Amino acid sequence: MEIQLRRSYCGDDLFPWNCAVCELGYTPRTVMADIVGDEGDVCDDCLAYLHDRHPELFPGVELLDALAAKYPTPVYPNSAAVRAAEKADLDEASRQFEDSYLWRPGDPQVLPVTA
Ligand SMILES: [Zn+2]
User: Fold this and answer.
1) How far is the CA of 21 from the centre of ligand 1 (A)?
2) Helix, coil or strand: residue 50
């Protein structure tokens, strides 16, 4: 299993759901720990456990916290805004989607500089 950190693309995705590992409910933040190649996301408690067990492979909650502080809003506030952006400029919307991936396995776990 690999995990990537992704900025929420659409604000409509920020509702309570269940962690893909422990299956307990949690509310995702504006930056989420996605399981690569799967629909699921991982809660902070499971991410902390995985990072403690294998820190080279799994990002830490500290990095997720720092990225969530740096990106306190989703890329688009709701699905209507996503549709409008894709209609206006699909290439730009695709670039925004790609840019929503903030950390991937193999990237250094460097905390972002906050202003
Ligand atoms: Zn969990």
Assistant:
1) 5
2) helix
